[in-house]
Amino acid sequence: MSLAIIHLRNFVGRFRPEFTFDLLNLINLFDSSNGQVVYATFNDLLVTRATTSNGQYAYQLNSLVTGGDRYSRDDLRSRWQGQIGLRIRF
User: DSSP code of 3?
Assistant: First the structure.
C-alpha cells in the first residue's frame, strides 16, 4: 500500500510550484513484520543423475540442499520508503 500527496500552489505570474510527498510500503512503516516481499528460490534442488530408459529421461533429485526456509526476503522492497519532491511549472 502506498500513499501519494500532491499540493499545487498558484502564485501570481507564470510559476506554479507542485509539492509532492510519497510513501511506499506504508504497512511496513507501522509494523516491521508486515509488508515484507518474499520470493521462492528454486536453486536449492540439485540433479544428481539423469538416465534414459525407453527413450525417456528419468531424473533423481537430491533432498534440499539447505534445510532452512525455501523463501527469501527482498530487503529493498520490504522496507518503507519516503520521497519529497518539488516541481516548478512555468
Answer: E
Q: Find cell 507542485 and name the residue.
A: 18
Q: How many CA atoms lie within 13 A of 67 on its CB side?
A: 0
Low-confidence ranges of the chain (pLDDT < 50): none
Do residues 22 and 85 lie in contact, with contact meaning Cβ atoms separated by under 8 Å? yes
pLDDT > 90: what percent of the chain? 14
Supply the DSSP symbol for 75: T
Question: What is the distance between the terminal CA atoms of the chain, rounded to a whole angstrom?
Answer: 33
pLDDT at 82: 93
* CA gap 28, 5 in Å, rounded: 19
SS3 at position 30: helix
CB 15 within 8 A of CB 90: yes
pLDDT at 9: 82
